[in-house]
C-alpha cells in the first residue's frame, strides 16, 4: 500500500467514524441507508460486473429476507438472533432455486427471467395477505439489540450498519480476488475457453448467484431493521432498477463503483427529492451525463482522469 | 498404457448442416508430436474443437489413452487430460498473468509436474509481469501465457492451434524452442500450424487434411521431400 492510499484510508476511516458526531439525525440516517444500498449494489455487482450477468430482480432478496425475518418475529414471536439466520438461510436457499432456473439463459434471457421471478415474489407479497398483510405491509417490528446494545438511535444503527457493510464489502472483495473470482471473471470474458480449462461455467455462475443473493439478503435484514416495516414495494422492479443503476453509474466490475453509485442514487432519492418533486428526472439526467462522459461509470472514469492528470 | 495417446476414428463433424470433417482418423502416439496440416478451411481447427468438446462429433469416436471422450463436456475432457492452446491466444485479458495461470491449475491424478513456479521458470518474461493484466502483454508474451496456461492443467495431451500465428520471426523461434523442450520432456502434442517449416522441424508424424478429409498420414520424413504432395495439399513451401 502506498503512502498516499494509506493516508486516504485513514482519512476515510476517521470521517466515517466521526460522522455521527458532526452530522444531524437526518444525515446519519441517510448514511445508514447508503450503507444498506451499497451492500445491495455490491452484491448485484458480483453478477453484473464480475459475472457479466445483468439481473433485474435483485430487490427480491431484500424483500424476501425482510419479509421472512418480519414474519418469523411477528407471527412466531422468535427473537432476532434466530430470525436473522433463518431469513438468511431461506433467502439463500431460494436464491439457489432461482439461480438454477435463471441460469438456463444468459444475456437478455437471464435478465428477463430474473425480472419475472422477482415479479412473482412481488405479486405474492401483494396478494398473499394472510402472510404479508398485502398492501398494508408488516409493521410493529423492532431493531435487534446485539450484546444488549440498543440500535434504536440513529448513531447506534449507523455504526452497526457501517460494521456490517465493512464486513460485507471485505468478504465480497475477497471473493472476487480469489481464484474462484478469477474463474468468474474468466467465465464472463471467455466462457467456452474457461470450460476447456476444466471449469464448469454454469456452476461458477450459480455459486456466484447464490452468494450474491446471500449478501442481498443481508441488505434486506438491515433494511427491515432500519425501517421497522416492510411493504411489497420493496420487491418492486423500481428497487431492482435503482440497484442496477447504482452499479452501472458507479462502475460495474469495481469494488468502489457500486458504493459510489448507490450513494449517488440515495442522495438524489432522499435529499434532492425533498426539494424537487420530480427527482426521478434528475436521476435520469445524472445517469445520462455519467454514461456520456464516463461510459464505464464514475469510479473508472475518475481513475482514468486522475491518471491522465498526474501523467501531465 | 497404450502407446496411442489420442485417436480419432472416422469422426464426422458438422456446423449446423455444413459437413466439415468427413470420417477423419488420426493417431497421436504418446510422447510424440503430430502435425495436423492443411490449407485454410481444411478443417484443422474444427478437428481441435471436436477433440476439446466444443463441437462433439456426429459420428466416429475420439479416445484419450484408450478411453472414449467424444461424448464428454469440455470441462470433463479437460479433467481427463486434454490441454488446449487456442488459435489467437485468447488469454483472459482482464485477469492478471498470475490469475490466468492459476485459474487453469489442475492436477491429473497423482502427477503434479507443472506448477506455477515451473511454468514461470519456463517463461521468464512472464515472471516479472505476474501482476500485469494479460491484455497488456505483447503478442509473443500472450502466446507464452496461453501455452503456460494449458500446461498448468498438467495435460496428458496438449493441443496447439497455430501457436506461431501473427508472431515476429524471433518469437516464432522461441515458441518453437518451447515446443521442442516440451517434446523432450515427453509431452504428447497435436500441433496445428500454418508455418510448415516449423511444423516439420518439430513434428514426428504428419496428417494432411484437405477439405475435411485425411489426404495423407505418415511420418515427417515421408512428406518433407515430396514437393508434389506439399504443393497439392498445402500449396506453399
What does it look like?
The complex is a heterodimer of chains A (312) and B (237). Chain A is mainly alpha-helical. Chain A has a single domain (24-311), classed as Orthogonal Bundle (ABC transporter involved in vitamin B12 uptake, BtuC). Helices cover 76% and strands 0% of the residues of chain A. Chain A contains 14 helices and no strands. The longest helix of chain A is centred in the last third of the chain and has 27 residues, at 201-227. Chain A is globular and about 60 Å long. Chain B is an alpha/beta fold. Chain B has 2 domains: 1-81 and 157-164 and 188-237, P-loop containing nucleotide triphosphate hydrolases (Rossmann fold, 3-Layer(aba) Sandwich); 83-155, no CATH class. Chain B is built from 10 helices and 10 strands. Chain B has helices at 44-52, 74-80, 97-102, 116-122, 124-127, 139-151, 169-184, 196-202, 220-224, 227-233; strands at 4-15, 18-29, 33-38, 59-64, 67-68, 82-85, 157-161, 188-192, 205-210, 213-219. In chain B, a hairpin with a 2-residue loop joins strand 4 (59-64) and strand 5 (67-68). The longest helix of chain B has 16 residues, at 169-184. The radius of gyration of chain B is 17 Å and the shape is globular. The chains are: A mainly alpha (312), B alpha/beta (237).
User: Got a strand count of chain B?
Assistant: 10
* CATH homology group of the largest domain in chain B: P-loop containing nucleotide triphosphate hydrolases
The whole-number mean of residue pLDDT values of chain A reads 93
* Rg measurement of chain B, Å: 17 Å
What is the CATH architecture annotation of the largest domain in chain B?
3-Layer(aba) Sandwich
Cα-to-Cα separation, first versus last residue of chain B:
38 Å
Helix content of chain A: over 70%
What is the largest interface, and how many residues per chain? A-B, 18 and 25 residues
Low-confidence parts of chain A lasting 5 or more residues at pLDDT below 50? none
Biggest sheet descriptor of chain B: 6 strands, mixed
Indicate the structural class of chain A.
mainly alpha
Mean pLDDT of chain B: 89
Bin the strand percentage of chain A: under 5%
Helix and strand pattern of chain B: EEEHEEHEHHHHEHEHEEHH
End-to-end separation of chain A in angstroms reads 23 Å
Low-confidence stretches of chain B: none
Multimer state: heterodimer
Q: How much is the radius of gyration of chain A in Å?
A: 19 Å
Amino acid at each position: 500500500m502506498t503512502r498516499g492510499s494509506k493516508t486516504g484510508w485513514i482519512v476515510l476511516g476517521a470521517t466515517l467514524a466521526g460522522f455521527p458526531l458532526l452530522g444531524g439525525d437526518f444525515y446519519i440516517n441517510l448514511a445508514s441507508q447508503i450503507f444498506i444500498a451499497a451492500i445491495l449494489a455490491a452484491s448485484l455487482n458480483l453478477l453484473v460486473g464480475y459475472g457479466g450477468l445483468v439481473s433485474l430482480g435483485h430487490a427480491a432478496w431484500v424483500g424476501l429476507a425482510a419479509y421472512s425475518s418480519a414474519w418469523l418475529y411477528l407471527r412466531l414471536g422468535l427473537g432476532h438472533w434466530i430470525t436473522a439466520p433463518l431469513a438468511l438461510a431461506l433467502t439463500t436457499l431460494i436464491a439457489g432455486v432461482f439461480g438454477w432456473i435463471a441460469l438456463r439463459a444468459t444475456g437478455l434471457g437471464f435478465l428477463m427471467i430474473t425480472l419475472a421471478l422477482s415479479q412473482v415474489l412481488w405479486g405474492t407479497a401483494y396478494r398473499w395477505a394472510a402472510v404479508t398483510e398485502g398492501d398494508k405491509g408488516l409493521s410493529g417490528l423492532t431493531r435487534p439489540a446485539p450484546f444488549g446494545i440498543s440500535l434504536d438511535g440513529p448513531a447506534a444503527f449507523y455504526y452497526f450498519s457501517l460494521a456490517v457493510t465493512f464486513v460485507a464489502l471485505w468478504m465480497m472483495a475477497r471473493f472476487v480476488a480469489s481464484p474462484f473470482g478469477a474463474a468468474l471473471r474468466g467465465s464472463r470474458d471467455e466462457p467456452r475457453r474457461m470450460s476447456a480449462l476444466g471449469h464448469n461455467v454454469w456452476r461458477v455462475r450459480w455459486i456466484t448467484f447464490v452468494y450474491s443473493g446471500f449478501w442481498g439478503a443481508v441488505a434486506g435484514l438491515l433494511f427491515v431493521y432500519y425501517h421497522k416495516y416492510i411493504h411489497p414495494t420493496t420487491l418492486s422492479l423500481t428497487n431492482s432498477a435503482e440497484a442496477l443503476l447504482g452499479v452501472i453509474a458507479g462502475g460495474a466490475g469495481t469494488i468502489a463503483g457500486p458504493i459510489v453509485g448507490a450513494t449517488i442514487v440515495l442522495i438524489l432519492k432522499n435529499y434532492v427529492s425533498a426539494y424537487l418533486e420530480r427527482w426521478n428526472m434528475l436521476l435520469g439526467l445524472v445517469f445520462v451525463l455519467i454514461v456520456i462522459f464516463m461510459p464505464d461509470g464514475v469510479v473508472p472514469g475518475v481513475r482514468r482522469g486522475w491518471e491522465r492528470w498526474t501523467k501531465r | 498404457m497404450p502407446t496411442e495417446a489420442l485417436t480419432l476414428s472416422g469422426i464426422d463433424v458438422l456446423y449446423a448442416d455444413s459437413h466439415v470433417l468427413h470420417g477423419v482418423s488420426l493417431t497421436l502416439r504418446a510422447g510424440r508430436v503430430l502435425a495436423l496440416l492443411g490449407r485454410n478451411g481444411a478443417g484443422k481447427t474444427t478437428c481441435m474443437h471436436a477433440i476439446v468438446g466444443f463441437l462433439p462429433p456426429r459420428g466416429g469416436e475420439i479416445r484419450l489413452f484408450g478411453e472414449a471422450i467424444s461424448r464428454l463436456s469440455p470441462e470433463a475432457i479437460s479433467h481427463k487430460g486434454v490441454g488446449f492452446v487456442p488459435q489467437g491466444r485468447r488469454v483472459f485479458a482482464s485477469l492478471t498473468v498470475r490469475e490466468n495461470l492459476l485459474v487453469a491449475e489442475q492436477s491429473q491424478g497423482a502427477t503434479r509436474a507443472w506448477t506455477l513456479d515451473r511454468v514461470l521458470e519456463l517463461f521468464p518474461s512472464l515472471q516479472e509481469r505476474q501482476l500485469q493484466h494479460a491484455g497488456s502483454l505483447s503478442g509473443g508474451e500472450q502466446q507464452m501465457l496461453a501455452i503456460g496456461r494449458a500446461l498448468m492443467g498438467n495435460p496428458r495431451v496438449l493441443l496447439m492451434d497455430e501457436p506461431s500465428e501473427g508472431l515476429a520471426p524471433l518469437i516464432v523461434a522461441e515458441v518453437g524452442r518451447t515446443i521442442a523442450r516440451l517434446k523432450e520432456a515427453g509431452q504428447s502434442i497435436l500441433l496445428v500450424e500454418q508455418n510448415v517449416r516449423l511444423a516439420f522441424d518439430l513434428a514426428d508424424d504428419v496428417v494432411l487434411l484437405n477439405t475435411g478429409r485425411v489426404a495423407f498420414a505418415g511420418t515427417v520424413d515421408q512428406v518433407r521431400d515430396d514437393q508434389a504432395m506439399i504443393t497439392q495439399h498445402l500449396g506453399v513451401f
